[in-house]
Amino acid sequence: MSNNSTFDILKKYIKEKKLRSTPERERILNEVMKLDRHFTAEDLFGILKKRKEKFVLATIYNTLDLFVSAGILTKYRLGAERSYYERAIDKPGHHHLICLDCGNIIEFVADTLSDYELKIAKQNNFHVQNSTHQIFGICNNCQPARPAQRSSGRSGGQEN
Ligand SMILES: [Zn+2]
Ligand SMILES: [Zn+2]
Q: What pLDDT is stored for residue 39 in this prediction?
């Protein structure tokens, strides 16, 4: 993973779009590139806050969306309000199991589409370039405890 190339992508994008170059964007990008997992704007806000970096949440939202437009991040929507991000660069294609309760995301790799999916694409004369499946449900941690296994109810989603 080369951070330099990511910064180059950002610089090029800013130049192309004739945007103003701001030190905030680079600081946010620097932090984003350290995150190997999916994250929300709020997660990043919390991380920056811990480092005593003062950002308004709206700035973080705007900056993350700019990174998405520049091709640095991928954004996934989780319903109307929640979105999460992950690095788009140096990351092989993969799919997601998403817990609707705690938001835990489990990744899995399956590089081919099923016959059924290919058929749908063909029927619509749709040229597939890549695909990501998002499968929603309730993760192991969030399922009601079975009497024999656990007695204290849910333990929350610590797994990240
Ligand atoms: Zn869960
Ligand atoms: Zn992922």
A: 93
**Residue 50 · residue 42 · CB < 8 Å:** no
Q: How far is the CA of 103 from the centre of ligand 2 (A)?
A: 13
Q: Which CATH class is domain 92-160?
A: alpha beta
3.30.420.270, 1.10.10.10, 3.20.20.30, 3.40.1400.10: which CATH number matches 1-90? 1.10.10.10
CA of 99 to the centre of ligand 1 (A): 5
Q: What is the pTM of this model?
A: 0.73
CA–centroid distance, 105 to ligand 1, in Å, is: 8
Q: Which residue ranges of the chain lie beneath pLDDT 70?
A: 1-3, 79-80, 146-160
Residue 57's pLDDT is 92
Question: Which ligand ends up closest to the CA of 92?
Answer: 2
| Protein residues placing their CB within 5 Å of the ion ligand 1 | 99, 101-102, 104, 139, 142, 157
